[in-house]
Amino acid sequence: MRKSNLSWALLVALGLPLSSAAFAAETHIPDEVVKDATTLRDRALNDDTAWAIVESLTTEVGPRLAGSEGDARAVAWAKAKFKALGYDKVWTQDVTFPKWERRSEHGEVLGHSSQALALTALGGSPGGTVQGEVVRFDSLKALQAVAPGSLKGKIVFVDVPMPRARDGHGYGVGASVRRRGPGAASRAGAIGYVMRPAGTDWHRNVHTGMTGYDDQTPIPAASLSNNDADQLARLVALGKTEIKLALDCGFNGTYTSQNVIGEITGSGKPDDIVALGAHLDSWDLGTGAIDDGGGIALTMAAGHLIKQMKTRPIRTIRVIAFANEEQGLWGGRVYAESQKDKIRRHQMVMESDSGPGIIYAFGGSWGTEAEKAVKQMYDVIAPLGIAYTPQQGNAESEMELMQGSGAAAAAFAHDASRYFDLHHTPNDTLDKIDPKALQQNTAAYAAVALMAANADGSLGSGPALVKAKP
Amino acid sequence: MRKSNLSWALLVALGLPLSSAAFAAETHIPDEVVKDATTLRDRALNDDTAWAIVESLTTEVGPRLAGSEGDARAVAWAKAKFKALGYDKVWTQDVTFPKWERRSEHGEVLGHSSQALALTALGGSPGGTVQGEVVRFDSLKALQAVAPGSLKGKIVFVDVPMPRARDGHGYGVGASVRRRGPGAASRAGAIGYVMRPAGTDWHRNVHTGMTGYDDQTPIPAASLSNNDADQLARLVALGKTEIKLALDCGFNGTYTSQNVIGEITGSGKPDDIVALGAHLDSWDLGTGAIDDGGGIALTMAAGHLIKQMKTRPIRTIRVIAFANEEQGLWGGRVYAESQKDKIRRHQMVMESDSGPGIIYAFGGSWGTEAEKAVKQMYDVIAPLGIAYTPQQGNAESEMELMQGSGAAAAAFAHDASRYFDLHHTPNDTLDKIDPKALQQNTAAYAAVALMAANADGSLGSGPALVKAKP
Predict the structure, then answer these.
(1) Nearest residue on chain A to B106, judged by CA atoms?
(2) Domain contains B406
(3) pLDDT tens-digit map of B188-215
(4) Number of separate domains in chain A
(5) What is the predicted ipTM?
(6) Which of B63, B204, B235 sits opposite A429 (nearest CB)?
(7) Domain extent at residue A140
(8) Domain end position, chosen among A201, A224, A252
(9) Per-residue DSSP letter, B161
(10) What is the CATH number of the domain that holds A53?
């Protein structure tokens, strides 16, 4: 049901709740805003700000494991970068979490086929040196089905290949083997745990990532490369195979990092926010280019390019470089908690945390009053080769927390076919970013953010929207 | 000049030198031999013996650095495998060489961009921990041009990218930077040496390989990954960059390994040899699948398949699994020395040491009397998609020594486009071998070897052929 701008203005004047679908006026993107967003889109397609940002972050800071010295340098870098990019306001939120350290790691096959195994400790693993016979499982379920205590003295090997997919859906199984496997192995009495990685590459790269132990006793847990998983599977098939796992890692106190937040202050509704997020931390093995340097770069660049426009946006553009996503959305939870009474103030949220691959679809969740406005946004980015998937898709990571609380969310689906070759590996380096894809990404985020900031009404944020979340 | 078989028989009876082109009879492959070779070719195209061999070697033995415990296991494996494959005679030659060991290695950028650098010690490097400012050179020549002593206390970085090519020609430059760079750096007074690898991959793999110091004082020398070379180049461009290099490696006494030789004894001329070679050792980082497990597999399989034929070959098929190729053709030199008076007894030599990629060309060097016979060989393998490049191409590695002494040689050009992504890296693992290409390789080597063994005359081996070598 279409409403005129007049009746919308009337509703505002009457102070009626904008987010209630029953009474909400239909929101619209004014023509001049569509025109500005189109200009912004085309400018972003030829701009290398995002590239310069990610080059700077991955080169000058490099790896930035949450709680490490690189984390501190990344925070300083982000504050300086926001300022250099012309953001009006830069502020931080403290984020405190248990500090996990990786010091050294080594794996080897013992006996008549003795050889090194490329592996890496899973985040959250305790240190320890264990050796024992390998028992292979071809599913997590099979491991979970064994009797408690029945694998006493063994080292569990869960060997589940992860399928490659544009939408990255194969990560669901892989990540679940990583998160739940060590606890299940511990419950069965095993002294150690190795797994085929939650990753799709065969370049001898190890894939780290967070694990947990549910309520079981933590045991040393590591991920092999896919090549080493192949090798171990062949050796186990040939006969009894013993391996040694020597991990020096573990939790060591707590650390306080920061969410670093840059804002382009809105000219008309400065307390209303279009929030763009990505995470500043990375795993330690690579330089965190695709996970999530690209996200940091394109969101920072989007705000910068909006600031360069002749007209300042009506609502505030807020870009958040989140602390410690990798070990459990620590920064995202601090932000969401701090904004729990300001969900309605979030005109729209969006995030980039599945790599800066080409965006192939645009969706999200929003109120019914925003259907036309979001379609207008889509029409501006459609020429970038993007399909429309209205009311589908998650904002990802930290912003999914906000979406879950009812913030209207844009969800950009990036091609993740290669993402799980790289993420959490030593091979997540700058050369993996396609500069053209990064420009397309920046163009899409910037154009949508600008239109959201300058829409003539709400996009439906508020607790009532929670049910609309896919 | 064509000669009849009769006049060839007459020359033999008169004891005239066969290798002298002026008097040599024209050699021919009898029709039934061509037919057998065609059958053998087609059988090899559907046979998985070579795959089973390389799977066994890379899995059960794994890495086999010359002088390591893996070297000893590889020798035992090769002896057992030749026997299991039905070779008539298995014998060894001792090969003694200086033993180089890699124990640990670490590199890092110091200061405000501190971060780890993926690197690996070059074979032959001494151990040592050094730190200093990086001086980058974009060519070996530029480094060689600096004044002696002018880089005192510095760490040299030679940054020359290696081009990808089907014929692998880019390795020439890369390997020369590796072999000559450390000596040139030492001469200039540098305390350490790092280089962009002699390799074409961007998967964060380090590429090792042998270096030397000419007459200069050895200094710690390592190769970065291409990604880390990019990173170091960017950091150096930003300003003064210090790195630390901590290598624990070096020569440690001598070691005696063995060339392992399997023979299918010839039925008519058992002292005449068709020799197929590959090297049994590998670098330690990977499992030596493409370098040179594939070569070991296809030469061993070729002999085995020839043995399976109804008729035993007239000349002996000799397959040599050479010791320590990687550190300087040690096994090849022992073999060549042992055969220096038997060049004429080598009907033909061939080797596989540029990876088991698809063979796209067949050439080599042979006497003029063998021109027709070699063309007949080519005609049998032409349907495998192979071009003919007569009197061109080197037999490679160990067999190039024999070719250089005048042995007639078959040279198979394997597609090496991907070879330098993998060789000498941790990523040289079984999954990199294309089973279909390995079958094509085996088919070509086996068919040519059989025809050489059953030719009705010489292929021209002898010192006189040396000038024919390209």
Answers:
(1) A104
(2) yes
(3) 999 999 999 999 999 999 999 999 999 9
(4) 2
(5) 0.93
(6) B204
(7) 100-252
(8) A252
(9) P
(10) 3.40.630.10
